[in-house]
Design a protein that fits this description.
The complex is a heterodimer of chains A (331) and B (193). Chain A has 10 helices and 14 strands. Chain A has 331 residues and is an alpha+beta fold. Chain A has a single domain, classed as 3-Layer(aba) Sandwich (Aminopeptidase). In chain A, α6 packs antiparallel against α7 and α8 packs across α9. Chain A is globular, with a radius of gyration of 22 Å. Chain B contains 10 helices and no strands. Classes of the chains: A alpha+beta (331), B mainly alpha (193). At the A-B interface, α1 and α2 of A face α2, α3, α7, α8 and α10 of B.
């Protein structure tokens, strides 16, 4: 053993493993890259989509919260600790041309501390709620999706918080165009139709049975209200959940079979959603890794009943909703 | 400590593609941030290491246009940038070695007689090593640690620091001589001084 060997031995004793918080430095780098690129202000709409994207919105803050406090140990520690439970609000909106944006899709996602079984709860867009002031003089009663029109994501967030009593750690806004690009980056996704559909409004034109569809058709499938099911928003939500499941499966498959294509998908996904706090492709990847265990996402719709004032609208079934959100409020 | 990447020949290609697509540069971060973090954490400890790694990649990103694309492996380039940034923290580094000099080591080692005995751990030499490191000139220290802790070859060290290979050799020889002298007769693995 010469002095270099002794020195190497000393070095090994002094070494620390990279902490999860190193992702912050990566974000700095990406910010520097983006600053140079100068994109125009995008139009952001929401489609409550990719469970993985949503999920991604989650692990990262957890990793960040952990990095500073938990002292890295010299030993080869691997995965970041599970961290705490996180709630994410996913908003998809409906902006077309110069029309005012509405939140077309709303989902609350709960990711437990052990990251085992995320729970997705959709909120129907025609749910009648009390919308808080949001910069206006007074709060008003209205459909939940009008909060987005009135005051953007922050107003939607305030409304959902008031309605559910759930603390939200992360807001994710998804653009329809972004959704289409994401599906295309995955090489398409599988959908199953109970009967043939030809709907001019959404542009969906498919026969009954299984189809491998591209981003444009997947989007139409997610949005169509006529020709499939009973035409209700609740039915549309179910379809979106199936699509999400299919999308997540496809993404997971790609992650295993074609890592290069998957990396591209993550980059697209990170660029297609607007997150507060911000997430990037690396953060998404970290998150996706946390969800490798098969189809473990649970999908629900918040319990509702017809509104007394307007049978075509719904109101929250308070006791049942309270039970459903209980897990969101626990640590 | 550094694991050579399996696709090292792609570093230059990656940097080249980042000229048009800045975000491609993040792949370089994914490839080498862990390696650099480990290296810098040895010299500066975990807190400063995180900043230095971030600064290293930011600096590398801003001068990627000047990267010599004939150099497929970007590690020497990154180590060179990191080394300059580590120098800004020389007080932190010095304090780290000083602390090590004082820190108690393996209690089973009592005196010189025991140290030459078989089974003595290398940790017995740590205070002396730390003492030696804190006494080295910066240029010598950089070369020594890039070789011993960064696992760089002489040519790579030369590239990292922008000095001739001959200078790398002479600095390394001088540094090793001083470390040997500091270990002196307390070197547990040497019978003779």
């Amino acid at each position: 053993m010469d002095e270099l060997d002794l020195l190497r031995d000393l070095g090994r004793g002094l070494e620390h493993e990279p902490p999860p918080s190193l992702v912050r430095q990566r974000n700095r780098l990406l910010d520097a890259g983006r600053a140079r690129r100068r994109r125009g202000p995008g139009r952001w709409t929401l489609l409550g989509v990719v469970a993985m994207v949503t999920a991604a919105a989650i692990l990262v803050p957890a990793a960040l919260l952990h990095g500073r406090d938990a002292k890295p140990v010299a030993a080869k520690s691997t995965a970041p600790a599970a961290g705490k439970a996180l709630n994410v609000l996913v908003i998809g909106s409906d902006a077309r041309g110069s029309d005012a944006a509405r939140s077309d899709t709303l989902m609350l996602v709960h990711v437990p501390a052990d990251r085992k079984r995320p729970h997705v709860v959709s909120l129907p867009r025609d749910l009648l709620v009390r919308i808080p002031a949001c910069g206006r003089a007074a709060s008003v009663d209205g459909m939940i999706n009008s909060a987005f029109t009135a005051g953007g994501a922050s107003c939607t967030l305030a409304t959902v918080r008031q309605l559910s009593g759930v603390r939200v750690d992360q807001t994710v806004v998804i653009d329809f165009g972004g959704f289409r690009t994401m599906v295309d980056a995955l090489g398409g996704v599988e959908v199953t139709l109970p009967k043939s559909v030809s709907d001019q409004k959404s542009g969906l034109d498919l026969s009954a049975g299984r189809h491998w569809v591209d981003g444009r058709q997947a989007l139409a499938y997610a949005r169509v209200r006529h020709g499939l099911g009973d035409g209700s928003d609740l039915d549309r939500i179910k379809r979106q959940h199936r699509l999400l499941g299919s999308l997540a499966r496809q993404a997971r498959k790609q992650m295993t079979n074609d890592p290069v294509a998957f990396a591209r998908f993550l980059a697209v996904a990170a660029g297609s959603v607007k997150t507060v706090p911000r997430l990037d492709a690396g953060a998404l990847k970290t998150l996706v890794r946390g969800f490798e265990d098969g189809d473990s996402v649970a999908f629900d719709t918040v319990p509702v009943r017809p509104a007394p004032s307007d049978p075509s609208r719904v109101v929250l079934d308070e006791p049942a909703a309270k039970r459903m959100f209980a897990s969101f409020r626990s640590s | 400590m550094t694991v050579p990447p399996t696709a090292r020949e792609y570093d230059a290609a990656l940097i080249e593609s980042s000229l048009d697509d800045p975000e491609a540069f993040a792949a370089l971060f994914d490839r080498y941030s862990g390696m650099l973090y480990r290296y810098v954490s040895r010299r500066l400890g975990p807190e400063a290491a995180e900043d230095v790694v971030g600064e290293t990649f930011l600096a590398a990103f801003s001068k990627r246009h000047r990267y010599d694309l004939a150099q497929r492996d970007a590690r020497p380039w990154l180590f060179g940038i990191a080394t300059k940034l580590v120098a800004r923290h020389h007080r932190t580094e010095a304090a780290r070695y000083r602390a090590l000099r004082r820190s108690p080591v393996d209690g089973s080692v009592e005196g010189p007689a025991d140290r030459v005995a078989a089974g003595v751990t290398a940790s017995a030499s740590r205070p002396a090593l730390a003492e030696a490191l804190s006494g080295l000139a910066r240029g010598d220290l950089d070369v020594l640690l890039l070789v011993a802790w960064g696992d760089l070859a002489y040519e790579e060290v030369a590239r990292a620091l922008g000095i001739p290979v001959g200078t790398v050799r002479s600095r390394l020889n001088r540094a090793r001589r001083k470390v040997r002298a500091a270990l002196g007769d307390t070197d547990p693995t040497r019978e003779e001084a």
